[in-house]
Specification:
The structure holds two protein chains of two kinds. Chain A has helices spanning about 5-10, 40-50, 80-95, 110-115, 145-155, 180-190, 205-210, 215-220, 240-245, 255-265, 315-325, 345-350, 350-360, 380-385, 390-395, 445-455; strands at about 15-20, 25, 30-35, 60, 95-100, 125, 140-145, 160, 165-170, 200-205, 230-235, 275-280, 290, 300, 340-345, 370-375, 420-425, 440-445. By secondary structure, chain A is of the alpha/beta class. Chain B is of the alpha/beta class. The radius of gyration of chain B is 18 Å and the shape is globular. The chains are: A alpha/beta, B alpha/beta. Chains A and B meet through helix 2, helix 3, helix 5, strand 8 and helix 10 of A and helix 4, helix 6, helix 7 and helix 8 of B. The complex binds iron/sulfur cluster (SF4). Chain B: GO terms for molecular function: 3-isopropylmalate dehydratase activity. Chain B: It holds the Pfam family Aconitase_C. Chain B: Keywords: Amino-acid biosynthesis, Branched-chain amino acid biosynthesis, Leucine biosynthesis, Lyase.
């Protein structure tokens, strides 16, 4: 069959049944669960008297509410402890693999999936967390689901979804000095707005994405949800195969060759049609930072905050946002004092992010007014940081490394930014109160976070490179 | 999870003319720690509804007794952000059975239908008319008919149709959820899994 997009190929290969005027019944290859969105799903399963249909297709981790210090001690918050215990009990009872706190493979769900080769091209992958879109970097269809759907996948290994519309976002050219994949995706969102891709599944194409490492691609796909999309994906290529080869759960020997042969067919046909296309130019992208309370409210770091008229999104939202942030129209972002820096999350908690951060703080000192939380996405990332000598660089510059978890990305544990304080964060959401009640979040890349961490103010990282 | 069947709902409505109401506002993350599904209504719009000292904020609409009803009318892009289904539960648990907006975020819309909360998408003009009707009379009644797929402002008779798939409609009318449907397909799913390469 010709004229298919990458998305069509993967989707169509997973339709168990098509319901007329209804959704497709889609088979799910891999299901990730964590402590926050799964307990109620397991309760539901029990009250129906249902079993987990294919326990070996589900993988559990503890990440959302876990502390990032003293993980060897019992979790203090009783509600969090309760959820963690529920997950341990449920996975044991149903025979599901569980990498809990303290396990060598524990980490943020969207980091450990790729790290262990659980995520593969051509798969359908779901998880009760919207940033499941991260796995799309491998050419998988991956998206977040609600708790009822978690129960559904546990009980039936399927979910029901109408096929979304298809969008392609192409960026041509080469990203400039100091511009990371985070900047590319923040730029896209600032251009098409935080709801610009609602109802669509996005494919990222063009030289910029082809040039990216797998980790950089994950950062882009991760934030697809921030433009409203169900998910985003990138066609698998030699980089994808090289990344996966030899990982724990990757196919081996003959199965590997067979898989690669199939994966090579997973690309959009030349004559395939998208419902909507955007094309951007890499030259227009500089390091980005957000100034408002949705991820679409961002701009190049050297530019003033756009006026209400220039900003995409409603005028009421705009005024309310700036008021919350304590900023004014046309303010310069450069030089704004900040209080916190968060390096981590499934957006930017991988080894390349720590390398980028370390490359800037190396030989410099953390600013005294800044509290920095550096949180690796997994124990594997944590070990890499130590092995590569990055820990020494960070320590010499006055930083400490914390233990893996979601941490200040959603502030369900103790890593909360106090009300009114400013945090430059490498995570994915700057909503009111996301990083703690009243917290003010500026989303940015690891370079921008590092530059702010050593200067104490919003700083263009290019001057350090 | 069982929910009430939805047929026709006639009720006054609570107006919330704010755009981009995200799920972090509907139910802040710190309330997601429950392992049960009830009690979320108490924390619905927690940070907009209460001061730090737990006293209600008088200017927030849910604290204004003149606005009551089972229908919440929100601004454009309602339910954006995090996929947390708790947002839909919180609205349902609080007592809402229907949310009206000119645009819903995708995941929220799906979650809502799945828990028995009907999302009704209307045109921007019709949304304005609803807000105006409530402004004139806080007790203005709206009629949402799922069988006819219509929403009507009873005082003026103004009406608009809304879209919902036959499948979802059937489920809501009967109080079924998707899992009931899929569990009946077990053999078909087993055969599919058999031939999968993953
Ligand atoms: S790091 Fe943030 S976005 Fe990623 S899985 Fe954790 S909470 Fe979700």
């Amino acid at each position: 069959m010709s004229k298919q997009t990458l998305f069509d190929k993967v989707w169509d290969a997973h339709v168990v049944r098509h319901i007329d005027e209804g959704p497709d019944v889609l088979f799910i290859d891999r299901h990730f669960i964590h402590e926050v969105t799964s307990p109620v799903a397991f309760n539901g399963l029990e009250s129906r008297g249902a079993e987990v249909l294919f326990p070996q297709r589900t993988f559990a981790t503890a990440d959302h509410n876990t502390p990032t210090i003293n993980q060897h001690l019992p979790v203090e918050d009783p509600l969090s402890a309760n959820q963690l215990q529920a997950l341990a009990n449920n996975t044991t009872r149903h025979g599901i693999s569980f990498w809990g706190l303290g396990h060598a493979k524990n980490g943020i769900v969207h980091i450990i999936g790729p790290e262990n080769g659980i995520t593969q091209p051509g798969m359908t992958i779901v998880c009760g967390d919207s940033h499941t879109s991260t796995h799309g970097a491998f050419g998988a269809i991956a998206f977040g689901i609600g708790t009822s759907e978690v129960e559904m996948v546990l009980a039936t290994q399927c979910i029901m979804q109408p096929k979304p519309k298809k969008m392609r976002i192409t960026i041509n050219g080469k990203l400039g000095k100091g511009v990371l994949s985070k900047d590319a995706v923040l730029y896209i969102i600032s251009q098409i707005s935080a709801s610009g891709a609602t109802g669509y599944f996005v494919e990222y194409a063009g030289e910029v994405f082809e040039d990216m490492s797998m980790e950089a691609r994950m950062t882009v796909c991760n934030m697809s949800i921030e433009m409203g999309a169900r998910g985003g994906m990138i066609a698998p290529d030699e980089k994808t195969f090289a990344y996966l080869k030899g990982r724990d759960q990757s196919p081996k020997d003959e199965a590997w060759d067979k898989a690669v042969a199939y994966w090579k067919t997973l690309k959009t046909d030349a004559d395939a049609k998208f419902d909507l296309e955007y094309t951007f130019d890499a030259d227009d992208i500089e390091p980005q930072i957000t100034y408002g309370t949705n991820p679409g409210m961002g701009a190049g770091i050297s530019r003033p905050i756009p006026t209400a008229e220039q900003a995409k999104g409603g005028a009421t939202t705009y005024a309310k946002s700036l008021d919350y942030m304590g900023f004014a129209e046309e303010d310069s972002m450069l030089g704004k004092p900040i209080d916190f820096v968060f390096l981590g999350s499934c957006t930017n908690g991988r080894i390349e992010d720590f390398r980028a951060f370390a490359s800037i703080v190396k030989g410099r000192r953390k600013a005294d007014n800044v509290t920095a939380w550096l949180v690796p996405g997994s124990h594997v990332v944590e070990s890499q940081i130590k092995e590569e000598g990055l820990l020494d660089v960070l320590t010499e510059a006055g930083f400490e490394l914390r233990q893996p978890g979601c941490s200040a990305c959603l502030a369900m544990n103790d890593d909360k930014v106090p009300a009114g304080k400013y945090a430059v964060s490498t995570s994915n959401r700057n909503f009111e109160g996301r990083q703690g009640p009243g917290a003010r979040t500026l989303l940015a890349s690891p370079f921008v976070a590092a530059a702010a961490a050593v200067t104490g103010v919003v700083t263009d990282p290019r001057q350090f490179l | 999870m069982a929910y009430d069947k939805f047929t026709t709902l006639t009720s006054s409505a609570v107006p919330m003319p704010i755009e981009n109401v995200d799920t972090d506002q509907i139910i802040p993350a710190r309330f997601l720690k429950a392992t049960e599904r009830t009690g979320f209504g108490d924390n619905l719009f927690r940070d907009w509804r209460y001061n730090k000292d737990e006293s209600p904020k008088p200017d927030f609409v849910l604290n204004n007794p003149i606005y009551q009803g089972k229908i919440l009318v929100g601004g454009k892009n309602f339910g954006s952000g995090s996929s947390r289904e708790h947002a839909a539960w919180a609205l349902y648990d609080y007592g809402f059975r229907c949310v009206v907006s000119s645009f819903f975020a995708d995941i929220f819309k799906n979650n809502a239908i799945n828990v028995g909360l009907l999302p009704v998408t209307v045109s921007a003009e019709f949304l304005d008319k609803i807000f105006k009707a409530i402004e004139q009379d806080p007790d203005a009644q709206l009629e949402v008919s799922l069988p006819n797929q219509t929403i009507t402002i009873l005082a003026t008779g103004e009406q608009e149709s809304f879209v919902i798939s036959d499948y979802k409609k059937h489920n809501l009318l009967n109080g079924y959820d998707d899992i009931d449907y899929l569990r009946a397909m077990k053999e078909e799913i087993g055969a599919f899994a058999e031939q999968s390469m993953y």
